[in-house]
Amino acid sequence: MSVADEVLSARRGAGNNRWSTARLLRRLPWWIAAAVIGIGGLLWIYPFLWMVGASLKNPLEVFTAGLSLLPEKAEWSNYSRAWSDAGFGKYLINTVIVTVTTVILVVLRCAMAGYVLARQTFFGRKVVMVVLIATLFVPTGYTIIPVVEISEQLGLLNSLTGMVLALSGGAHVASILLYLGYFRQLPRELEESAVIDGAGFFNIFARIMLPLANPVTATVTLLTFLGTWNAFFLPLVFSFSRPDLRTLSVGMLAFVGENSTDWSGMAAAASISLLPVVVLFILLQRYFVEGIAGAVKS
Q: A Pfam family for this UniProt protein (predicted)?
């Protein structure tokens, strides 16, 4: 037998071994897991695809087409109607202002709180930790009434400033704990070297510790962005008497009438609202995974 025949025979043997019963049985659990994950992924993404498809259908087709994703004829006018007639251009500006400002305030506040709790020792530290963790079990709806009362007393009820302070003034315990866990695993020699060089507390925090926590900052930014962008009750209360202050999530009420609902227009508005969230997630997904993995590891 020549060398070429031996190589060909070995390849045939490897090919047969690849589809052997024992090998198939060993890989069966992985294939089942992959099939379950694939089906779960399709079930998870289907409502999003259906919403995008519904945004291109006419109102009657939304109900008559059933579970079909593709429209018979794309109605791009739904998007122009959502943008101009329903005033989503103004709502988008309000949402960007509120969301960006809230994210900046939450990141700075939670990063500083996590840094102090992780690196400083002071009287009452454990009490603060217990109170913070206890707030995880308080439903968000219970805080709306006192927040509205305080905002009204301060004259901030019908304003974007009041809306930002209300959205950023929550405990955000999960974000604080993420920073706490990340700062706790950093070596103390970094701070000691900075102190020898004459750096103070804020310089150490702003120039050394916060830049090192970029993965956590990306995670907190994304989580806060999602929560603020999709917030409904607080923006509704703060814009109840001022429709011009509505955000995108509240602005969808424009498609709900007394006797009917414009479902295709609402689907187009929801698609417009979700687009920035999807783009931000794609840009920050690597840092988001690193931040979550680092927090879990710590």
A: BPD_transp_1
pTM of the full structure: 0.75
pLDDT digits (tens, 9 = 90+) for 127-149: 888 888 888 777 767 778 888 88
Q: Which helix (H) or strand (E) holds 179?
A: helix 173-184
Side-chain-side CA neighbours of 184 within 13 Å: the count stands at: 16
Provide the Cα torsion 154, 155, 160, 166; round to 10°.
30
How far apart are the C-alpha atoms of 136 and 118, rounded to whole Å? 19
Distance CA 102, CA 228 (A): 7
The encoded tokens of residue 139 equal 């439903």
Distance CA 47, CA 114 (A): 37
pLDDT category, 87, cuts 50, 70, 90?
A: confident
103 and 225 in contact (C-beta within 8 Å)? yes
What's at 108, amino acid-wise? Answer: L
* Cα–Cα distance, 102 to 168 (Å, whole number): 5
